[in-house]
Please model this.
Amino acid sequence: MPASLVYDLALSEAEAGAFDKAKALFANRFFPREEGGTNVRQVWIRVRALEAVQAPCSDALKIVDHVGEAVSNLDFTRDGLAPFIDAPQNQLSFGSVEARCGRKEAASKRLERMARETDPANRVFGAKLARCCRARTWRNWKLPVSDRDRQPVGRRPSRGSCIWNWAIAKRRRRCLKQRCYCPIAIWRITFARTALAEIKR
Model:
């Protein structure tokens, strides 16, 4: 099975809640490195983040605590996971788990780290995490506004490299209208699909 199909199927299984099937797809496979191509670590971490969101607290917190550790039969987990764990959509997932499972202080610290970043993705996902944490200042998560932000976002692009920016732009415009949240199920699916579109290029 081509690696790109493995990534797509793994995210589909994760979205459907079949996490054992999703994780099994990574075992005993070689994932080639391609310049500018998909990184298997990004898909793996996203699957784990989705699992944490859906899992009961006892299991979810174990995922959050150990997501950066190597898995015995998955060589690609030995290094290089940190940048994908730090991705804004995954920080939201892990932070929302902490907020839900009695670790609000840890979630708040995660939120503070996101607040120090100025890129649109961190601001959009940080606003959602602030709401999950019931932070008093969540409404202060204003995005830098430009004339471009006030323009219509347009139709969903077909090229994977553009879809992430399109999704973020759409969220930015909603935030400008003071509607900075979606039901968690919709967010979970949006994150998985936009992340896949980004890495499939």
Confidence is low (pLDDT under 50) at residues 143-153, 156-163, 175-190, 195-201. The longest helix spans residues 160-176.
